[in-house]
Amino acid sequence: xxxxxxxxxxxxxxxxMSGSRSAIxxxxxxxxxxxxxxxxxxxxxxxxxxxxxxxxxxxxxxxASIARIAEEAxxxxxxxxxxxxxxxxxxxQLLPYEGLRMRKWVERAARETPPGMDRxxxxxxxxxxxxxxxxxxxxILYEAEVFxxxxxxxxxxxxxxxxxxxxxxxxxxGRMHAxxxxxxxxxxxxxxxxxxxxxxxxxxxxxxxxxxxxxAASLEVYRLLLTKxxxx
Length: 232
Hints:
two-stranded antiparallel ribbon, single chain, Tetracycline Repressor, domain 2, 2 domains, mainly alpha
């Protein structure tokens, strides 16, 4: 309120002027977004999957207890069982979940590259970059062969079939030498073996600089083998 002094010397309290604003603005809380039950369930399930990936990345499948995963996800152990029957049920979902993220990463990296050798090398490098930047992915992928064999077989089969479709298209368009089905499958397995051992080197590297060096050297050798062969 404003205080004015009249001629008589008495003070008179006046009401605030219409339209005036308080010096301290009122606090307005942003409206809370209420999630549906399905959305809450989806987010909780994904939080458990992400926590499972983190724990397996650091401790391996053998060291990934339900208590540890629930703690990492910020949920009670009882909540875990609302989404997964047991630890194995979660293990069977980790590689499909993380493997899909990896495949999307690779496809984004290679999308703008011309088909043929350049695209294959871009895919190879993108895979190694993913392993380098997501250091725990190696354990999720390759330990799954023992701890989540069904998921591992399904993941590798997806990769294999993707290569077969791509190479058949390249052969049909004359961009690649013709190969029989057995030869084609053997070639792809050899290429996947190169990826696996390069990934192992990256996983065991001493730091980021060494990982980058391994990625660059692996890509150089990969391109050399696929274009010119090993021997002069």
